[in-house]
Amino acid sequence: MSDTSALMIQSLEKGLSVLESFRAHASLSLQEIARVNGITMGSAQRVAHTLEQTGYLFKDPRSKRYSTTVKSVGLGYSYLYRQPLFQHAHAVLHQLNQECGEIVNLGVPDNEDNIVFVMRVAPARHIPEYMPVGSRIPCIATASGRALWAQLPPAELDRKLRTVARIKHNPRTTTDPKILRALIDEARRDQYGYADEEFYAGDLNVAAVVHNEAGTPIGAVNISVPKPRWSLERARQELGPLVIRAARAISTHR
After folding, report:
1. What residues contact residue 43 under an 8 Å CB cut-off, 6+ apart?
2. Which of 4, 75, 98, 106 falls 20 to 30 Å from 64 in CA-CA distance?
3. Can you tell me whether residue 129 is helix, strand or coil?
4. What is the chain's pLDDT, residue by residue, as a tens digit (254 residues)?
5. Is the peptide bond before 132 cis (omega within 30 degrees of 0)?
6. For the sheet containing 193-196, what is the strand order?
7. Nearest of 221, 22, 243, 251 to residue 115 by alpha carbon
8. Using CB atoms within 10 A of its CB, is residue 241 exposed (0-12), middle (13-18) or buried (19+)?
């Protein structure tokens, strides 16, 4: 047994896994918790009870189904609030929103080939698709993910394109690895990526990469605009330079 596995607290890992399973479900029964997490009913009951007693889950007295509570929001609070980079990004995103008059986002990659949106500024005149902080979108279906994957070494990019789940979220979602590779190569050349109605219908988005002080890609600035008010050609011409400039402004802040 390795040092890593010897140090692993399996009960804690199980509890976190159960809590994370609510990302995709508004509520879960004990049977569903067990099935989704691949654990026994006994384990599901103990974990759910513990999370309920500590305030992270609520058990409906009538349906007996569990759902997360507002306390669970606090788990990500320090990540969002204490990061100096995000504090500066907040000002840059607001300035970008004023310049383009459209929805702007900051997203960071997770370890599951997704982009997690951690900050959003939307104009008052437009009601956007409901996408709260913490929303996850597959990298291959969003401009932010493609811009970030354009920074990968060729061998790692090839591996990701071979192994990533290529799900058809709508009729316009690109799933062909060769076309995806071409779009990512284009993002590397132009210094920004784009996606045309590939996750949400009617949504066109462009994005550029944010780097840390060491030059490592850590996130992406994204502008999301509605079709048919925006065409792909116009978005690329007008918004591409704006996301590049905003990403650089965040990256170079010290």
Report:
1. 14, 34
2. 75
3. coil
4. 344 567 888 889 899 999 989 887 889 999 999 999 999 999 999 999 999 999 999 999 999 999 999 888 777 776 776 677 777 888 999 999 999 999 999 999 987 799 998 889 888 766 556 677 778 889 999 999 999 999 999 999 999 998 888 889 888 999 999 999 999 999 999 999 999 999 988 999 999 999 988 888 999 999 999 998 999 999 999 999 999 999 999 987 54
5. no
6. 136-138, 114-121, 103-109, 217-226, 203-211, 193-196
7. 221
8. middle
Per-position b or e across 84-111, b if 16+ CB within 10 A of its CB: ebbebbeebbeebbeebebbbbbbbbee
Nearest of 76, 106, 149 to residue 250 by alpha carbon: 106
pTM for the whole structure: 0.79
Residue located via tokens 């599901």: 44
Q: Which secondary-structure segment (H or E) carries 51?
A: helix 41-53
